[in-house]
């Protein structure tokens, strides 16, 4: 009886080990076949061609995330990847505010003010990114040199200003949501280069941030670090 139990135990252990090895092998196969479906980036953000009187402060920053479907276009190295994504950007001003109080004006005015300790202009976009990709290691997207160039077409879903100060010794936050000055669409060129799962990336608006009637040709840009995988 003991010999039978011992034999059954050995058999069971062997079967379990085999199953675990098979699962692990399948998991490793999926890792090797990673196509960078998920791309996440954090960035330093700025405005090119900003008005001369605009004064920024601190670290203006952004965040973007995209789910993309990688489609090989050659047997090795090259692919194209469309997807859907979201981008958020915050530009911090130095003792200035964006005056939107005149509802009849099309002018964007940046006014000096000590009212807020912190003040930012924030924009959020829902986007459709498309990339042309190069991958050194076609079998394993988690290793080797990778590069991509592309374009993002985005729809503005939110634009607001947010100021922070103290009132009566308590923290006070004033948020003003108004999209009337902002271009409802965004088109941006993108580039990314890195090794394995990490890369440096940059984006540059191809059209102005503000509507043409404002007579401003501000072009937002981002420079940052991206993490890709899956």
What topology does this entry show?
Blueprint: H1 2-32, E1 38-48, E2 61-68, E3 71-72, E4 78-92, E5 96-99, E6 109-112, E7 118-135, E8 145-167, E9 170-177, E10 185-195, E11 198-205, E12 219-229
Antiparallel strand pairs: 1-2, 1-12, 2-4, 3-4, 4-7, 5-6, 7-8, 8-9, 8-10, 10-11, 11-12
InterPro entries: Beta-barrel_OMP_2
Domain Outer membrane protein beta-barrel: 39-206
Signal peptide: 1-19
Describe the structure.
The chain is mainly beta and 230 residues long. The protein has two domains: 1-32; 35-229, Porin (Beta Barrel), CATH 2.40.160. Helix content is 13%, strand content 53%. The chain is built from one helix and twelve strands, in the order αββββββββββββ. The protein has one helix at residues 2-32, and strands spanning 38-48, 61-68, 71-72, 78-92, 96-99, 109-112, 118-135, 145-167, 170-177, 185-195, 198-205, 219-229. It has an eight-stranded antiparallel barrel. A two-stranded antiparallel sheet has the order 5-6. The radius of gyration is 25 Å and the shape is elongated. This is Outer membrane beta-barrel protein. Residues 39-206 form the Outer membrane protein beta-barrel domain. Residues 1-19 form the signal peptide. Keywords: Signal.
């Amino acid at each position: 009886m003991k010999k039978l139990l011992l034999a059954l135990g050995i058999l069971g252990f062997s079967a379990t080990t085999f199953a675990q090895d098979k699962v692990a092998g399948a998991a490793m196969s999926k890792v090797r076949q990673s196509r960078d479906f998920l791309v996440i980036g954090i960035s330093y953000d700025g405005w090119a061609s900003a008005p001369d009187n605009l004064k920024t402060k601190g670290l203006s920053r952004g965040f973007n995330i995209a789910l993309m479907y990688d489609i090989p276009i050659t047997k090795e190295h090259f692919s194209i990847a469309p997807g859907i994504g979201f981008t958020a950007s915050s530009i911090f001003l130095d003792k200035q505010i964006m005056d939107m109080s005149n509802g009849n004006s099309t002018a964007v005015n940046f006014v000096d003010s000590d009212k807020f300790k912190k003040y930012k202009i924030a924009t959020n976009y829902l986007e459709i990114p498309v990339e042309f990709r190069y991958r050194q290691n076609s079998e394993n997207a988690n290793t080797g040199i990778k590069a991509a160039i592309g374009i993002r077409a985005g729809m503005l879903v939110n634009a607001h200003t947010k100021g922070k100060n103290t009132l009566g010794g308590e923290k006070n936050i004033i948020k003003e949501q108004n999209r009337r000055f902002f271009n409802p669409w965004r088109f941006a060129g993108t580039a990314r280069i890195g090794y394995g799962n990490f890369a440096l990336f940059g984006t540059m608006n191809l059209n102005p941030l503000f509507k043409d009637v404002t007579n401003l040709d501000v072009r937002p840009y981002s420079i940052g670090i991206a993490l890709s995988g899956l």
